[in-house]
Write a structure and sequence with these properties.
This protein has a single domain, classed as Beta-lactamase. Helix content is about 30%, strand content about 15%. Strands 1, 2, 3, 4, 11, 12, 13 and 14 form an eight-stranded antiparallel sheet that branches. A three-stranded antiparallel sheet has the order 5-8-6. Strands 7-15 form a two-stranded parallel ribbon. α1 runs antiparallel to α12.
């Protein structure tokens, strides 16, 4: 029996959440919805780990949902006039321009069009955790294509490039700056770099039986998502895997967020409506800039998942249906998904610890139910 609540008018979301546990091999999961800055759905069920039930406080690795908080921070800096998304990154990080990267902008990185989805340098786990060796490798990297002319998912490089720009402007790494300006003031349970004190609330990831096998480690896509093999994927119960506190505790801003459903939804609620009377963080003009399509169709590798990208966010598409043209969010490799929509005043997040496969339908069913509630 699901725990939590759904306000009047949102019962269809509760029904779909309950049905997910009978339709899919769910282990533990949660869904949270804000409407007009107020939490109207807060549901959880199942097990966070063997012998430990999921609770309202449970957090789980949400993989590339990390790109949401990072992109909100980047747009907030742009809105404040501290960052020009269309200026060369070298304006803020002079060493970046080496090896033909002088024209690359933050906008190109946000749209996965910068030509640097993967690094030639193979770094160790310890070097990745140290941050600056990754920065140095990015400075030495040549683009795979002329920046701005094509796109391919930039995986981890997305977070490190934008995160270093954030650091150059604010003096803080992106996860720390997110907590300073958003996470801590609003008491959101979402981190890029999980504090050790939160480990007792951490859910344990498990793969679903029959999940598609990983690609060959030398495949470019696997190099993108593993940083040339330094990180495992999915790699749950291995040293430095996605259940390892050492991995989850470091700044990995492209894919290393850990959050509860309400914490992740709260990031988008803060952005599009504010929470419980607080002012919205991103203006309608800033959101309009973020949801302008930059990339879609087949990428550099020839894959076409049907996704559409704005500036740092997935946009409404058949691949990731949301609420409409003002919806923007990010998904995670474990099936997690979160988005906001200022036309509807809605923020949504689904988190789970059973990994089914990229783009699985669990979150989509919940969003379909949410759409019926709003109509």
């Amino acid at each position: 029996m699901s725990q939590g609540w759904a306000d009047d008018g949102f019962g269809a979301v509760a029904d779909a959440f309950t049905e997910n546990f009978s339709l899919f091999p769910e282990l533990g999961a949660a869904v949270s919805v804000y409407a007009g800055g107020r939490r109207v759905v807060e549901l959880w069920d199942g097990d966070a780990a063997p012998g430990r039930p999921w609770t309202r406080e449970t957090v789980v690795p949400v993989f590339s949902c990390a790109k949401g908080p990072v992109s909100v921070v980047v747009h907030l800096l742009a809105q404040e006039g501290r960052l020009d998304l269309d200026a060369p990154i070298g304006t803020y990080w002079p060493e970046f321009v080496a090896e033909g990267k002088d024209a690359i902008t933050c906008r190109m990185v946000l749209g996965h069009r910068a030509g640097i989805p993967v690094l030639d340098t193979t770094l160790t786990f310890e070097e990745i955790a140290a941050w600056m060796p990754v920065v140095k490798a990015i400075e030495e990297q040549k683009p795979l294509w002329e920046p701005g002319t094509a796109f391919e998912y930039h995986g981890h490089v997305f977070g490190f490039v934008l995160g270093e720009v954030v650091r150059r402007i604010t003096g803080q790494l992106p996860g720390a700056y997110f907590r300073t300006v958003i996470g801590d003031p609003l008491e959101l349970r979402a981190w890029i770099g999980l504090p050790a004190a939160e480990l007792p609330t951490l859910a344990r990831l498990e793969e679903a039986p029959g999940r598609p096998p990983a690609l060959d480690p030398e495949h470019l896509l696997m190099r993108i998502v593993t940083m040339n093999g330094a990180l495992e994927f999915p790699g749950l119960d291995v040293p430095h895997g996605w259940n390892d506190p050492d991995l989850l505790g470091m700044e990995l801003p492209g894919a290393g967020a850990v959050a509860s459903a309400s914490g992740l939804a709260g990031v988008y609620a803060a952005a599009v409506t504010g929470i419980d009377g607080s002012a919205r963080l991103l203006s309608p003009e800033t959101v309009g800039d973020a949801v302008r399509e930059l990339s879609s169709g087949a990428g550099f590798l020839g894959f076409d998942a049907g996704a559409r990208w704005g500036s740092g966010f997935l946009l409404d598409s058949p691949f990731r249906p949301t609420l409409g043209p003002r919806s923007f969010g990010n998904d995670g490799a474990g099936g997690q998904f979160a988005f906001g929509d200022d036309d509807h005043g809605i923020a949504f997040a689904y988190t789970a610890n059973r990994m089914l496969g990229h783009g699985d339908p669990r979150a989509t069913r919940l969003i379909d139910a949410l759409r019926t509630c709003l109509s």
